[in-house]
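Predicting holo structure, NAP bound.
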Amino acid sequence: MQLANQVALITGGARGIGKEIAALFAREGADLALFDVNAQVLEQTAAELRALGRRVEGLVVDVTNASAVDEAVSKVLDKLSKIDILVNNAGITHDGLVVRMEESQWDRVLDINLKGTFLCTRAVAKAMLKARRGRIVSIASIVGLIGNPGQANYAASKAGVIGMTKSVAKELATRGITCNAIAPGFIKTEMTDRLADEAKQRLRALIPMGTLGEPSDVAQAALFLVSDAARYITGHVLVVDGGLAM
Ligand code: NAP
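Done. Tokens:
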């Protein structure tokens, strides 16, 4: 087991890619804290993961709320004693062409995807600095690298996550803390289920490997980045996209 005796905090961990990362980390021996907004789904996921024999704290936290994030991180430190790994995964889309995009649409996507990543990183990095070790992984997107029509807000948020990752990596590099990002392409989750069949067909045609990715493809990349095997990798953006962005 690669993560025995470690504690991982995963935001948006109740479903989708976050849940898959949580399950893989639990199978690798990590205890977990999950932040998410839907109490019912969160409790159900926490119960499933406890069945793997791990300690799991599910906390209802909106990552855009600074005081809620700080309080929840303190609770996790009280209950699980430490946080070795942070995965900033909570994220949303709210698509629209830029000329029709409402200010509120822009603000909400930037708030959750970018500010939420900042608030969680800030809260957890303080504890990691004291411990002089830690692993931070943020889930960006290839859309933050190559853009996508209808997703100016999402692309800006994910490009922001990538810039933030590199800055934080430089700030924390001498303190035993790595900070990396994963840029998934199109992965089968509820986020992409919402796309029309025609859009999915078009996407598939653009992916050299010819198929959408699975949440487990992203989870395995996250496991690598938090494992000892990646101890000398920081400020990196690991693209997991079936070749789409190359
Ligand atoms: P998902 O299935 O929609 O899951 C996202 C989770 O985050 C949900 O449980 C959601 O809660 C939670 N969340 C939303 N807002 C939150 C907030 N303010 N505070 C805390 N939790 C919040 O999405 P996914 O496809 O797994 O995506 C996970 C991450 O991967 C996102 O950052 C996304 O941008 C990124 N990504 C996904 C793809 C893809 O193709 N799926 C590709 C590239 C990048 P609710 O239940 O309320 O929605």
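Residues 11-12, 14-18, 35-38, 41, 62-64, 89-92, 112, 116, 139, 141, 184, 186-187, 189-192 surround NAP (CB under 6 Å).
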